[in-house]
Amino acid sequence: MPIAALLGALALAGPSTCAADGKLLLTGGVSSIDGTAGGGLTPWALTGSYATEGQWGGSSHATVVRSGDYRLLSYGASLSWNDRLEFSLARQDLDTRNNLAPLGLPGLHLKQNIAGLKWRVAGEAVLDADRWMPQIAIGLLHKRSNAGDLGPTLHGPLGARRSGTDFYLSATKLLLAQGLLINGTLRSTEANQNGLLGFGGAQSAGRRWQPELSLAWLLSPHLALGAEWRAKPDNLDRSVLGTGALREDDWKDLFLAWAPNKQLSLTLAYVDLGRIAPALQPRRQRGGYLSVQLAF
Predict the structure, then answer these.
(1) Which of 103, 113, 260, 265 is most deeply buried (CB count within 10 A of its CB)?
(2) Residue 134 per-residue DSSP state
């Protein structure tokens, strides 16, 4: 319902202020799994949709990530104003299938709701393409998880909290002549597996800054090829389950984004999510990523 309300707010803005096609194709990025504009795994300084100065814009997305042993579904919507402010909502659902069966939890779903806010504080990616200045934005992602029947263990002996907030700083540089987009993000976080396993832990070192990098090559006005890397905290590496039982690895992907027009974009990716709860499933989680975004 909150996501539907966000889309309804855009409809109420009226045709005079709604975005049409003010920005270049793919210069709003795509929807990340957390709902904010960027790559699939990390936020960029760009605001979603094609809204420019004085305009509202919005987008909605649905994403499926299938690794060898897990499936993640993410869906949500975002609303942007004046190419400066972005508000987003997303919901995630991780199907653990039978990987937690040794704990008596077959078929458990780990879920979380995410509310995001991003503000462009300096620069403009397209207008500053021939200067050194990048587009810079600050943002936050407030997350609340629901671990189901795993909750008593996760929030008890393991010491993880049910909610937490990521803060981030992103800088995006667009080199139009070379057809390159470079993004760097620093994220302050305590999230375990992006928040699906709660926040912090009984023996964690607390909030830490984690780097994230993205590179995209514009093969044509409609097609972009890129890669992402996202460092992850390791709050649950030392726990009552033993050292390494819940060790967390960095995330990586190789993606191809296609936008036939400004209303639709499709993103395909090969993802490597590392090991998730290696004490129960030691294999690295590699697989496919498919995301559909509608912008208006």
Answers:
(1) 265
(2) P
SS3 label, residue 5:
helix
Contact between 94 and 71 (Cβ < 8 Å)? yes
CA distance to 29, 222, 261, 291, 294, per residue, from 24 (Å) = 10, 10, 10, 20, 16
**Burial of 104: CB neighbours in 10 Å, binned 0-12, 13-18, 19+:** exposed
| Contact in structure between 135 and 181 (CB atoms under 8 Å) | no
**Most confident of the ranges 16-25, 48-57, 134-143:** 134-143
Give the CA dihedral 142, 200, 64, 294, nearest 10 degrees.
20
Tell me the sheet residues that pair with 137.
120, 170
> DSSP class of residue 153?
H
The reported pTM is 0.91
CB 180 within 8 A of CB 155: no
Instruction: Say how many CA atoms lie within 13 Å of 116 toward its Cβ.
Output: 35
pLDDT of residue 296: 82
Identify the residue with better confidence: 169 or 68.
Answer: 169
Is residue 48 a contact partner of residue 57, using CB atoms and an 8 Å limit? yes
